[in-house]
Every structure is written in structure tokens, then in C-alpha cells.
Amino acid sequence: MNFFLKYTIFCVAMMVYINISSAQDTTFTESYGNFFSIKTFFYNDKFSLVDNESGLNYIPDNHLGIGIGLWCKYLPFDIFYRHELNSFGSKKFHNTKTTDLQLRSYNNFFAGDIYIQRYTGFVALQDEDAIKANLDEGIYFPDLTISHIGAVGQYIFNGNEFSYKAGFTQNEKQNISAGSFLLGAAIYHLKIESDKPVFKDTVATLKGFNLGPNIGYGYNFVLGNHFLIHANGVFGINCSNYKLSKLFSESTDFAPVFHFKGTIWYQKPNWSVGIVATWNSIMETFNNNYNLYLNTGRTQIMYIRRFVFDTKKSQTNEM
What we know:
Blueprint: H1 2-18, E1 29-31, E2 36-51, E3 56-59, E4 63-72, E5 79-84, E6 97-106, E7 110-126, H2 127-132, E8 139-156, H3 164-168, E9 172-174, E10 178-193, E11 205-223, E12 227-241, E13 253-267, E14 271-286, E15 290-307, H4 311-318
Antiparallel strand pairs: 1-9, 2-3, 2-4, 2-15, 3-7, 4-5, 6-7, 7-8, 8-10, 10-11, 11-12, 12-13, 13-14, 14-15
């Protein structure tokens, strides 16, 4: 875990370093000129571990709530406070303990995401039950803890015309529809702990490591003066093993990973409202060639209020 703590700190430092302004083609994209933004939102988090051998899905109680956030042009990340509301499931599942920290930093030519997640308390459901999300019919594992640390980065080839920030964070405006190929790499660590055997009725603790390149494409579709639709998908084939030192050995499996982001925005010069969705699927290989699939996601309904202190920019926006 010390390696991944150091790796996370390194990634944060790199995001701060490269989060600087780059040349833009203002015909396609431009800054709103805001000094900071206030964001309020309603969210719903998804987190599940899939065991294809048994057909079981391990999921915590559904997590939804409200939040408020701050973006400032001098900070590399948004700052959010979230308050969880009552969950959907039975009361006996409401003791789930959750840490779900997601850091994002985007500039014209780089997109970086860091995930730090830890969930304790899961219910196991068959595939058909998981679709219905009826937690009362599952088997409860109150001591099962799943920890996930991941870092994903992509180079944006057409960053002077395609704005990742306009599509996902609304810190810029996309004037003309444009897209870009994305190329990068990702590293993940998944750790599973339980006081009693869970998987195959013999496994109580598992560790998996995952590292490899990825490729994808993102597109901003501008519809009229006020609507923007953004979508990007990233696919990778990673080396996966139960030890970091064995990632490039003969025992390494090749594991598929997929990341998707999609948004729909109604935008004005000083405010925006929209739906933001992310979904990630990662295969992890453990000892004895045992494979599990981690699926995570987040859906948000968000309102953003931008505050512009640049007089010239404000006058431009009002025209």
C-alpha cells in the first residue's frame, strides 16, 4: 500500500504541474473567464464486485445524497462536500462504511483521474437479483471490505479544438462540435479483506495489481446556443497479477478495462445545469488465476454557478 500512496502523491503532483493554460483555438473553445464556481448536485454512486464463477454480485447498499462543491482557477481539483441521504435497501444494510474519493484534473492536453475507494459491508446477489437491486434477498457480509486505488491519465491529441473541461466540468465553453483521440495509461490496486471465507468458501483476503496502456475517443456535440452533449470512452488491455513484481511475468493475465464518461448540459454564460455520468469496469487477477470484475460508477444532476470578476469578459458574455 505504501507504493500506491507514493504513486497517488506523485500523480497529484504531476496534475498540479501540468494544470497550466495551453494554446487554444478560440473559434472552437474558450474560457468563461470565471474566477471560481459553486456547484450543487444530487448524486448516486454505484460499486460492485462480480464473481463470474459463482454468478454472484457483491454490492454495498445504494449510496445517494446531495453535495456542494467549489472550483477555483488556482486549484488543480474541485473541492466537494457530500451528505448521504437514506439508502434504498433494508435497514440491516445501512451500516455500510464508505470512503469514495475521486480526484480529477483536466487541461487542454491532459485528462487525469484518481480513485480512492473503500467499502465495508456487502450483500451477495445472483445476476437476476442484482438487476432488480433487491438487497433484502441477498446474503449479507458485514465484515467484507473492498479497497480500490486507481490512477488513469490520457493525452488529448486535439486539445486546441476539443475541450475536455467543457464537456465534463463546464469550466470552459465549446463553441463548435469537435472530438479527439485519447492515449494514456492506468494503474490499479484492489484489496479484498474479510473475517471469514467468502470467495469459493476458502478465500478471505485477496490482492490484485493492474497496469497498462489505454486508448479512446472523446467528442463534444454542440446543439444550438445552449446545449452540449459530451461522451468519451477509453479501453485498455492491462497486465494483471496478484503481485506487483509479477505483472510482467509468465503468470500474468491480460485484463480488459473500460472507462466511460457522458454528460448533457444546458449552459448559459454564468450558469449551467446538467446530468453527469461515469462508469468503469476493471478485471483483476488474484492468486491461483482467480478473476473478479470491479464495476464502479457515479451519476449526478448538477447545477453550476460561475462568478466572473473580469469586467471585459463579463461584458463579452452578456453580448
